[in-house]
Structure formats: structure tokens, C-alpha cells
From TrEMBL:
Its main location: nucleus. Pfam families: Myb_DNA-binding. It is found in: Nucleus. PROSITE patterns: HTH_MYB, MYB_LIKE. The lineage of its organism: Eukaryota, Viridiplantae, Streptophyta, Embryophyta, Tracheophyta. This is Uncharacterized protein. The keyword Transcription applies. Gene3D superfamilies: Homeodomain-like (1.10.10.60). Keywords: DNA-binding, Nucleus, Repeat, Transcription, Transcription regulation. Residues 9-62, 63-117 form the HTH myb-type domain. It comes from the Eukaryota.
Length: 324
DNA sequence: AAGGAGTCCAACCGCAACAAC
DNA sequence: TGTTGTTGCGGTTGGACTCCT
């Protein structure tokens, strides 16, 4: 036996809301509030609508301070970052964007942002200047031709839709550790995803992300549980996040440009503090941020479990993300 | 100008979580 | 503790609109 319907479908109006219905609903809620009972509300408000429909109309369209229209680049970046991080948890993503509704963001992602992101994936051998620029950005990492094996691994992550699979897989193996760890990386918009192919345990790591930090500070409803975040640098937006919901990947985001002078990728958080961090071949810190050492990261991804990573807290002050 | 294809987005649906009893 | 009602969420739909030929 199924659940009884929330309303008598035969006697409720469906489809688009008329201005009269909108003003009735608005007026009622402004006067009386929702009363904590959406099911009873339409009757009280004199509406021939299902309570769920009223709730949706109010939350997505009528309530005050709803922001409609164009999304800013900053909003784009936050959505992309969080999507790569937590997937399609639209309500959580919406919570990071005041005035935006989950429905809005979901529609925006499905109709525009995903395509925008896909168009950001450019083949490495293209002759366009943008492609050349991206090739340069990939310079610090040993590269080789992509192979279907790694393509399969990438497909297997489940992090992005197969359709958005870029044609720029890169493969490198560590030379400084006894455990040689093949991995490849990819660029999603302004983010870079590193995908160790030999991981036994699923985890995901974020470095230098205000969005991830914001997310980590709120454990309500987020799939990224506090313990999965790992350690993040207090008072700084440079952080590390593990997400066992995702697969075999950690993420550095967002990346703005490649710095030819010191062979590094400049990674900024874009948040209020505008903290600058860099992925670099040099391990050091500076007033402008952190330099993530590539070899250390290679070692980091060779660990076999989140517990191992979380187990070691030494040297947290300087390299708070190196726990293995 | 017509109509077919593609895009956008408000609204619906079903399910899971939660709350109240 | 189990049952029932409600809320919240994410996926999907379908109609309106725009673009293209």
C-alpha cells in the first residue's frame, strides 16, 4: 500500500501560477506566516493548490530577497567548485549563494554552466591561443600521451559526466617514492582535479578553497562530514578536504593562471581574504600564500586510506595538508 | 513567413528524512 | 517503538520562447 497523496489531486489546480494566486499567497504568508503547515495553508489562503506547490512557489519565486537573472562569475565559480566537491546537492550549494534558490542553480547548471565548463576543456594539441595557454598551464607536470586506460579510470571516478571528459589526460609517476603512484589530472573550469589511479580508499582533497572551507564550517546536511574534511589551516582559506563520497580524487581550486617565472600554478581562493596560494615545485610559504610541493602531493596520494592521512598531525603549522 | 530544433525554466513527482503522536 | 503526516530534496517534465534554416 502506497502513501496517501498529500492532497486531492483531482481538486487542485496545477500548472503555472496566475498573478492573482501569487498575490493571494504572498498576502497570506506576509500576514500569517506559513504556520508551519504547508498542507493546510492553501485552504486557509483561499487557494486551490497543493501545499507542496504553494511551498515551492513561495520558496522559489515569491519570498523576499530572491535574486533572479544573470549569475556572476563569482557565483559561477562557487557553483562549479561546490559541484565538483559535493555533487548535485543543490540546497547546500544554494546556501552559499544568498538569494539564489536550489532550483535556480540546478536549472542554471543543467542548461548553461555545465556547457560552459565543457567548453573550457580544450584539446592539448589544438593550435588555438587559449589551448596553448592551457598547455603552458600544464607544464609543471610530467606528461605523456593520454591512453584509453586512463580515460577509463577517469570515467570511473564518477566526478564529472562522461560527456564532459576532457581530452587532456596526463599521466605521471612518482620517482621519489618506492610506491610509484600513477596519477593524472584535469582542469575543470578554474579547478584542477588530480586523480590517483592506485587509490584503494576513496577520498577527495581540497586545497585553497574558500568554498570548501565554508562548507566545512557547516556540518548541517552536508555530505562532507567534518571528519572527512581533515585538517584545515585555522584562520586561513587554505585547507584540505577529504570526501569519501567521491572517488579517488583530490582537488586544487581554483586556479587562475600559470606563472612562468617560478614554474607554478597560481591558485587563489577568490574569497574575502583573497588568499593567494600556489602549486609549485618549491615547498615554502610566503606572505602571499602556500606553495604546494608536487612531489609531496605525489606521496600524499600514495597513501591507502583516509585514516592514514588523518592519523598524522605533525608539522601542521606549515604543511597542514601533509598527513600520511 | 513558417516550422522544426534547440533552449530555458517553472512546476511536478517520488522518495527519504524528520516530527509528532 | 511503530505509524502517520509533513517537509525538503533532487530528478524530470513539458510548455513557452528563441534561433535557425
Amino acid at each position: 500500500m502506497g502513501r496517501a497523496p498529500c492532497c486531492d489531486k483531482a481538486n487542485v489546480k496545477r500548472g503555472p501560477w496566475s498573478p492573482e494566486e501569487d498575490s493571494k499567497l504572498k498576502e497570506y504568508i506576509n500576514k500569517h506566516g506559513t504556520g508551519g503547515n504547508w498542507i493546510a495553508l492553501p485552504q486557509k489562503a483561499g487557494l486551490k493548490r497543493c501545499g507542496k506547490s504553494c511551498r515551492l512557489r513561495w520558496l522559489n519565486y515569491l519570498r523576499p530577497n530572491i535574486k533572479h537573472g544573470e549569475f556572476s562569475e563569482e557565483e559561477d565559480r562557487i557553483i562549479c567548485s561546490l559541484y565538483v566537491n559535493i555533487g548535485s546537492r543543490w540546497s547546500i550549494i544554494a546556501a552559499q549563494l544568498p538569494g539564489r534558490t536550489d532550483n535556480d542553480i540546478k536549472n542554471y547548471w543543467n542548461t548553461k554552466l555545465k556547457k560552459k565548463l565543457i567548453s573550457g576543456f580544450l584539446p592539448p594539441n589544438s593550435s588555438s591561443s587559449i589551448n596553448n595557454q592551457r598547455k603552458q598551464q600544464q607544464a609543471p607536470f610530467p606528461s605523456s600521451s593520454s591512453s584509453s586506460m586512463y580515460m577509463d579510470q577517469y570515467y570511473g571516478t564518477g566526478l564529472v559526466d562522461p560527456i564532459s571528459l576532457p581530452s587532456t589526460e596526463y599521466y605521471a609517476s612518482t620517482t621519489t617514492t618506492t610506491n610509484s603512484v600513477p596519477f593524472y589530472y584535469n582542469q575543470v573550469g578554474e579547478s584542477i582535479i588530480f586523480s590517483p589511479s592506485s587509490m584503494q580508499q576513496n577520498y577527495q582533497m581540497f586545497v585553497g578553497s574558500e568554498a570548501a572551507t565554508s562548507c566545512s564550517s557547516s556540518d548541517n546536511g552536508s555530505s562532507i562530514k567534518q571528519e572527512e574534511i581533515g585538517y584545515h589551516h585555522q584562520g586561513s582559506y587554505n585547507n584540505i578536504a577529504f570526501n569519501s563520497d567521491h572517488h579517488h580524487e583530490f582537488l586544487v581550486m581554483p586556479t587562475s593562471s600559470f606563472n612562468n617565472n617560478n614554474n607554478s600554478i597560481v591558485n587563489y581562493d577568490g574569497g574575502d581574504n583573497n588568499v593567494i596560494s600556489q602549486w609549485s615545485t618549491e615547498k615554502s610559504t610566503s606572505s602571499s600564500g602556500y606553495y604546494y610541493d608536487l612531489e609531496d602531493i605525489k606521496q600524499l596520494i600514495s597513501v591507502s586510506s583516509v585514516d592514514e592521512i588523518k592519523g598524522e598531525e605533525e608539522d601542521k603549522s606549515m604543511y597542514n595538508y601533509y598527513y600520511y
